[in-house]
Amino acid sequence: MGGSDPVAAVLDRIPFDGPVPPLPDPAERVRLREAFGWTVTQMGQANDVRRETVWTWESDPPRTPRGEKGQRYARILAYFAAELARAGAQDGSASLEPGLEPEPAPDAAAAEATPLEFDFDIEDPPELSWPDPDPAPVLTETAQPEFDAPESFIHLPEGVTRLCVRCGQPTSSVVDGQPRHVYLQAMAAMGMPRCGTRPTAPATPAPTPRNETPTPTVAATASATPAAAAGAAAVPGAAPAPALPAAAAPSVPAAPAPAAPRRPAAPRRPAATPASRRKTVKKPAVKPVPPEYADGPLAVLDITDGALTAHLVDGRTLPCPAKTLQALAAWALDKKKIRLGAVKLHDNGFDQDPLLVLTEGAVAHFSLPTDLADQEDLRLPADDRIVKNITKAGWELTKSGFGPWARIFKRLDGKRHCVQLALVPWGALETRAWGRAGDLSAADLAAMLGTYARLVITPRGTLAVTGDELMTALRPPTKAEWSEKENKYVSAKVPHTLHTVVEPAPCEAPDEHPVVAADYPEEGSRPASEALDEEACIWVRPAELITDDERARTHVAALDVQVAFLAACRRLHVGTGPAIHYPRNPDFDPALPGSWYLDLSHVETDPRLPSPFTSSGVRPEGPAWYATPTVAYAVELGADVRPVEAWVRETHSPYLQPWYDTLRDAYLTVMAELGVTQDLDDEAFLAAMAVYKDGDPLLVTLANAIKATAKSGIGKLRQRPNMGVDHVFGDPWPALKRLTWRPDIRAMILSKARTNMHRKMYNLATTAGRYPLAVNNDCVVYAVDGVSPLPLLLGPDGEPIRGGFRLGVNPGSVKHQGSQTIGWALDLLVDGVNIANEIKDVSLVRVA
Questions:
Q1: Does the model's pTM come out above 0.85?
Q2: Apex 432 CA angle, 463 and 427, nearest 5
């Protein structure tokens, strides 16, 4: 190995013989690599693997490297630990002490600025990885200099050297706590290159994902009091942290929060030795709030002591003098009176508009009806006196009019200044997700919605609308770009985002879409084989296929996948451009998102398992359209796939990754406050899940709202028209104009979720001989002795089944949905009743 290569220079100093040191946990792997100054690309080069493989070694849950590569990886990490410990002993640099986060080296920063290439889901076999067609370039430091200040470095004692984190060669300098060669401005002026650099073309920085912005935790929110908030407000440029009221304090104390890497992860827990793999997740820090938004993202308006009062998210109140809605909008945007709003989620996006929530008292104060007369349209008519007064005052409403979620805006100085209204008496907070939130006091409602706004986004409408808006807020479709021709900034499309409205392929569009109605003008006339039918599985095993062994069991237990559809979004590549038609026998390419027409009826599957290729679980009878994950899973099962036709998208990206990260982190944060943390062993997890709904009702409502945001947001990707008097079959409807109206992406997600679940059922069947009795979307029921689901998770050797179900709070893990007697189950199965849909409401016991 040549000494000019920094990776090779380090490897030359590592002894690759003798005993193999143990592998540290994933958090420590990340810390050691980053503290030493290596990127995932360099670690992959050192182990002769792709950088995506290194991510899986450090991910949640981890993929343990084995064989020669695993031993090599362990030796490298042990060398890092020894060097960092020696460095800390020599100069006492706090930045190199174990457990503390160092500043990322320039290489690490470059790696973070590059979009993640798609890697296979951690539950998928390695041979089914979906890399990008064009592999990402090796990440090296650019030739652009980064000068060191004279006071930023020290010299080690004479004769003492350490390895430079950039080039791997010995150096006697320590710069900002890291062993590194010094690079001064004078050295650059002399044309001297910085160590470890290679002249490369500057990489285009990737959009900053939402999950890189620290998100306040519910614990910090709940513990804040108005007095504490007032103290925080005294800090210049900072805002008081929104607080849940005293009644909303978590009933279960939050777990301690030690330091964690930039990619917090909780490893899976073996049932036999759970303590060996426990880890807590670092709680994100509260990001300082700009002064212009010091009063929080929203306010709840109510009548207090006969006067209109604004209840803020931190527990404070402010009087509101507005008598009309137009005056209310002007007051909300007047920074001299109240400072509402929130910062943008992405540098290319826009700041979040202030939200005003009107309770029943506030609705009456503005002379609005407490009940809408038109329950069909759920909005005021355009000629209503209140609507006319708003427009006469120079304000405008969006095309959706004045309904439960109304947006009032005015154009000033070339910009649109907007206020979002939510009218609680009009059903703005849908009870399916928000429960009885409309009955909360104004202070409690402000605290709960404020926490949601800080963990996710300021609500923009229903949770379906909010989930959809979150996608574009995290991945804005356009950005400001300087035009030399026009000598000004212009709007430019951002690659790898949904920046253009594209037509769906005919197979992907619902029956009402114009592209389908043109060929099949009568509703319901399109043959089923011509439509892409990627849905969740709903299946019941025929009673005659239930074995005597299963009938001899005492109970049935249901496992429910946590936020299954959200979990399917993790690292999923979806199309970002138009569909390209391949009409004649294309070769299947698992790297291309899209739809494939082929025959999978010849694939043999066990009748005790649902077919993975249909939503009914019934074996297909002939050719049909399938999304890419379904065809890829058929290949994994050994099928000979020969597509006849395809509609695929050659431009694609993991578009939903920041959306997944944001909702996952929000869900885990709230569940941790309810006592369900990632470090619980299986028994403790079952006990915590059995009682978490008895905890703080505001936190329980928040958890439900976050899950509903994910599920409804995915459904919004294929929003169908309201088939009423205002819509004619075959005519376009407003949703088709949205950039995020993408039925193909929804199909990819549901296909991935269904095949992920089937893979686990298949592994459980082949390893332990256990077959499901019924499946309903993300819930599966098995026969078991006793009420606990734990026996279902272990193989004949008493160890967790590789590739099977794992208990946990993370999306994609499972929880106990309920148990019942085997007699109850058999009685219903004889009649073809889906017991997976019934077992939750009649569960006999809670596992303690």
A1: no
A2: 70
